[in-house]
Amino acid sequence: xxxxLVDSQVSLNAATSGSIAIPVSTTPxxxxxxxxNTSGAGADLRVVFDFTVAVSSLLSVLTPLTVTVNRxxxxxxxxxxxxxxxxxxxxxxxxxxxxxxxxxDYHPPNPGFIIYQALISVPGGITLFPTRVGPESFTAExxxxxx
Length: 147
Known about the structure:
This protein is an all-beta fold. It has no helices and 9 strands.
């Protein structure tokens, strides 16, 4: 069956490097949110998403960063993607790390409108927090078979 693009959205929190300076914490922080109109979808609904977030750290002691993508349908939040990247061990040099990823939410429930959110955090027990510096973006496209 052929793919049918149902909807596509972009959430751009920061367009350029150095445009923000937000410390990452143990509490997941939103860097992208969007809603997809899936009311025209046929069978076999799937949502493809991509994210980019840049962080900077002057001192990094193998700091893990976690990016989470949640789906929200009728007020119910479901985690559909989680990835953890560990920043390299550095001291005394400002290092910018660009985290990018892609994922698919295959056969999500379809009430006609689905919200997706991208969040970033560090696990508990971390004492040296990196800073979000931009760019930050989150995109999603909903596809289905022909309606």
